[in-house]
Amino acid sequence: MQIMMVQGGKDEFVKRMAESKLLSVKAKKLDLDKTPSYQVALNRAKDDLLAREFLTKEGEALQKKLALAEGAAKAYYDQHPERFKQPELVSVRHILVSVKQAEGQPGLSDADAKKRVAKIQAELKKGAKFEALAKKYTDDPGSKENGGLYADADASGWVPEFGAAARTQPIGKVGAPVKTSYGYHLIKVEGRKPARLVPFEEAKAQAEKMATQERQAKVWNELMEDLRKEIPFELVKPAPAAATKASEAPKAPAAPQGDVK
Q1: 187: number of CA atoms within 13 Å, CB side?
Q2: If you ran DSSP here, which 8-state letter would residue 134 be given?
Q3: Domain range for 7
Q4: pLDDT value at position 104?
Q5: Same domain, yes or no: 23 and 102
Q6: What tens-digit pLDDT sequence spans the chain (261 residues)?
Q7: For residues 118 and 133, is the Cβ–Cβ distance under 8 A?
Q8: Chain-centre distance for alpha carbon 117
Q9: The pLDDT value given to residue 178
Q10: Which of 44, 84, 212, 231 is the most exposed place for a label (fewest CB within 10 A)?
Q11: How far is CA 258 from CA 252, 253, 261, in A?
């Protein structure tokens, strides 16, 4: 069965190659290989192919240049501490009661939304679990199944009113309703982690990746600079289309004869 599938794929490939050849032969009969657009595309394809051949030939030498020296990742980490800073992270649960922005849109009126918030607050006072009420009432699909939870999130990514509450509310307490452009939120802060510089051992993989990317850019730029010194090269931009001569400009239509009503 596997052999038949491989053979089928091979047959399909051969079929596509034959069809492409038929089309190209027909195009040549129509002299389409002499059109300016074809010549431009052909030259570009040749340049791309030659460029790949050059890079393949120089591959081993380039790989040696790209290799990171021992300690390069740590050096990158030490030189760019700002890139390894982790902002304050907040874990919150919330219940959103959405307010419709206009007639015909989903959500409750402002008055009805306030009534629902009051109902949820009453259930919380009776001992209902916040997580269970979030699953039951929240209009936020992104956190509904998790009981309203957003864990270890950067509060700066939230709308300002929500972010401010997440950063300042007492941990473990449900705060007063917060109004945002989405509606009313009941927010319970689960915990906060202060901003910190991620230790190198935690950031090592990321530092290696970023150092490698920086090294790749440096090697590439050096290669291009060497080639520019070796090969005189100027990018020629296509000339703008010649302006239509005044004598060749189309004449305005003659004014209509007779009365204009």
Answers
A1: 28
A2: H
A3: 1-47
A4: 74
A5: no
A6: 555 545 567 788 888 999 999 999 999 999 999 999 999 999 999 999 999 999 999 888 888 988 989 999 999 999 999 999 999 999 999 999 999 887 777 779 999 999 999 999 999 999 999 999 999 999 999 999 999 999 999 999 999 999 999 999 999 999 999 999 999 999 999 999 999 999 999 999 999 999 999 999 999 999 999 999 999 877 656 656 544 444 444 444 444 444 433
A7: no
A8: 36
A9: 98
A10: 231
A11: 18, 15, 9
Pairing status of strand 178-180 against strand 196-197 = unpaired
Residues 1 and 97 occupy one common structural domain: no
Both tokens of 193, joined, read 């982690």
**Contact present, 135 and 145 (Cβ < 8 Å):** yes
Tell me, yes or no, whether 180 and 107 share the same domain: yes
Q: How far is CA 110 from CA 98, 122, 131, 157, 248, in A?
A: 9, 19, 24, 25, 66
Tokens of 20: 């492409």
- Residue 157 belongs to a domain: yes
Q: Which residues contact 108 (CB under 8 A, 6 or more apart)?
A: 97, 98, 99, 100, 116, 183
User: Is 187 found in the same domain as 221?
Assistant: no
Pairing of strands 178-180, 85-86: unpaired
7 and 71 belong to one structural domain:
no
49: its two tokens: 């192919």
Same domain, 190 and 206: no
Which among 127, 100, 116 is positioned nearest to 186, based on CA atoms?
116
DSSP code of residue 260: -
Residue 168 lies in a domain: yes
Please name which of 112, 129, 110, 226 lies closest in space to residue 174, comparing C-alpha atoms.
129
